[in-house]
Design a protein that fits this description.
There is one protein chain. The chain is an all-alpha fold. It is built from nine helices and no strands.
């Protein structure tokens, strides 16, 4: 959905992070394993847009010469999270009980939510151009002023948007072996470390 010029990346990041923070409460107060696993799955699903589009945001923020550094730092953070999370969470759980690491996760993600809500700029070029065209239309009272991403989006039907948002990722995963095996590896590692 972040590829749609009307939406951009920030609403996706901020909205899913807000729901992610709220979903920590049912995990903390889970009364049985089924409830715990169901809400852990939902938090993982809701928290996935950052992992999926974070590299694109980093690439948008840096010029091509410096992109390798930004993506390298982002990649290290993405790899260290699954490695360091159980280590830090294990000490907290040993000291304060099994819900304490989830409280820590909620506090950390809540802080990130506030930080991103106020300080993260929109990086999607299609959304930036769309908003710029909207401003120019409003200033000049000329409804014909449109940007290229807006013109392309107007030509898409709801079915085409749904196919782009829901079918394209699965098509890419199933037709490209490297994507399929990376997705399988990440699913295995995250499944083992976070459940």
């Amino acid at each position: 959905m972040s590829e749609i010029p009307y939406i951009g990346r920030n609403p996706i990041y901020v909205g899913t992070l807000f729901v992610f923070v709220l979903l920590q409460l049912p995990v903390i107060y889970a009364s049985n394993y089924s409830m715990l696993f169901a809400f852990r799955f939902l938090t993982g699903l809701i928290g996935s847009p950052v992992r999926a589009t974070g590299g694109a945001t980093i690439a948008d923020m840096y010029e091509p010469k410096k992109q390798a550094y930004g993506i390298g730092v982002w990649g290290i953070a993405a790899v260290c999270g699954p490695a360091m999370g159980p280590l830090v969470g294990g000490f907290a759980a040993e000291s304060k009980g099994w819900t304490w690491p989830i409280w820590e996760l909620m506090w950390l993600s809540g802080f990130c939510f506030v930080f991103l809500f106020f300080l993260l700029p929109e990086t999607s070029s299609a959304n930036i151009l769309f908003r710029r065209a909207q401003r120019i239309r409003k200033m000049t009272n000329n409804p014909r002023v449109k940007c290229e991403p807006e013109i392309e989006a107007e030509g898409m039907s709801g079915k085409e948007v749904a196919l782009m948002v829901f079918v394209r990722p699965f098509t890419l995963s199933l037709t490209e072996p490297i994507c399929f095996f990376l997705n399988l590896y990440i699913a295995l590692i995250y499944g083992l470390l976070y459940l």
